[in-house]
Amino acid sequence: MHSPKKIAVIGSGMAGITVASLLARDGAQVTLYEQNWMPGGCSSSYWRKGFWFETGATTLVGLDEGMPLHRLLQETGLELPAQKLETPMQVLFKDRLITRHQNLGAWITEAELHFGVAGQRGFWEECYRISLQVWGISSQQLAFPPQNLADLLSLAQGFAFGQLAALPAAFSTVEDLLRKHGLLQHREFVEFIDEQLLITAQNTHREVNMLFGATALCYTNFGNYYMPGGLLKLVEPFVQYIEQRAGEIRLRTAVRAIHLLPNAVTIETAQETATYDTVVSAIPLNNLADMLAPGREKSILRTKLLPSEKLSSALQLGIGFTPHRSYNCLHYQIHLPKGLPGLPSKSIFLSLHPASDVSRAPQGQMAASVSTHWHNPAHNLVENRAELEAAILDLLEEKDMILKANINYLHSSGPASWAKWTGRKWGFVGGYPQYKAIKPWQMMGARLKKGQFYVCGDATYPGQGIPGVVLSGLTAHHKMKLDGVI
Ligand SMILES: Cc1cc2nc3c(=O)[nH]c(=O)nc-3n(C[C@H](O)[C@H](O)[C@H](O)COP(=O)(O)OP(=O)(O)OC[C@H]3O[C@@H](n4cnc5c(N)ncnc54)[C@H](O)[C@@H]3O)c2cc1C
User: Fold this and answer.
1) Residue at 452 is within a domain
2) pLDDT tens digits, one per residue of 343-354
3) Which of 55, 92, 332, 482 meets the CB 3.0–4.6 Å disulfide criterion with 150?
4) Measured in angstroms, how far is the CA atom of residue 144 from the centroid of ligand 1?
5) Is 0.85 surpassed by the pTM of this model?
6) Which of 42, 291, 373 to mutate to test the pocket of ligand 1 (most atoms within 8 A of CB)?
7) Overall domain count for the chain
8) Domain containing 146: what range?
């Protein structure tokens, strides 16, 4: 009888959790390293003064049939008590409240009401059609981007002629799509689109590839869910699943270096050096590059790295407050009429929990997360954080969201906090943004060294947050299977 493969996974964000769960299911002996004292990375929750705040992500998609989280649940047999949201999101845009309905027809009617009839129907129908294709193809083609013959054969097996219909969009950007529907000169609409793209694709219409842009813009046209208790409750069942299958989660254990030997991989932590058959890195590529000795793998990585100037961190506020009103939606994007002092953001994102979830806050109170992009975190030092926080609180009051007098607890985090919480270089978060110079097939492939070393996470599958990183974990696992690792 063979002894089980010893496999290490670095990072317990949703990418690492995905791959570790599937490997544990397959009978591998999995060790999951996590530098933090809690699992989940950017999709988790933490407790402060009676409130459970979300660490980073607040919206959850990917649970609909054929989407990445749905597949992960199917493969593991786990169930989640996620609650589907009636209204995925509202946007406070200038003096308007725009409701992003899930139903495509209802959303087009809403969009036409706010931006005029011309071009809207065609634009959104095309976006939706492309996003259906993207989710369909990505779930059938886990060997993408191909890196060797086995990947090409796997892609050939999953090939259907209908997939070719998505090809033209791979060469275009959202700018091209706007132009095609006569909307590129519609300044207000483009402003709206750019802020929507930033939430999920981390970039704006000139840079975002049409394939990913369409899925980003139709994010709200798929099932959006709430996890009672917060996103830690998304992570915990998988942690238990891994542990029940003889897997080990080593919290507070940062990996410092990785050595690729001819037939094994060693991992160095402050406590020990351990040897594995295979290692999967689910941390950002920038962190990984710093851990590898010069060699072929490091050279490959270097060609894919984005510098701080092309990345963002986030300013995030955790606010515990007594609500003065009821809310008919959990997620609000609020456009900024006057900008913010120190950051070039044009919108903030406010997320609440349903009043019915009493586990998140003391009686009669609520926990809110507010976030906005913090571009180029290595070099952009905001001098007056207090002024920035004050501007956001003023805006929340002006928009009748949260009254300052009702705030019972407040803290804010910037790049330094993110670097500490997630260990991510420069505290950059949200993943690699979409850039038009990087075509889908030029994304980082999951296989760095056949049989020994694989990568996943939000620096490999740009944008799309949790569904994207779960997909990256599924992809890494698929390539490991093709390579005979499991
Ligand atoms: C403010 C904010 C809002 C967001 N909103 C949404 C949203 O609403 N919906 C959505 O889907 N996505 C959202 N995202 C994006 C999403 O949260 C992330 O893209 C995704 O969770 C990243 O998962 P990951 O596994 O790739 O990385 P991470 O979650 O960063 O996980 C990496 C893990 O590796 C650990 N680690 C790092 N270095 C080491 C080391 N040397 N040794 C051991 N462990 C290490 C970290 O501690 C971390 O736990 C948001 C992100 C932010 C920051």
Assistant:
1) yes
2) 989 999 999 999
3) 482
4) 22
5) yes
6) 42
7) 3
8) 103-220
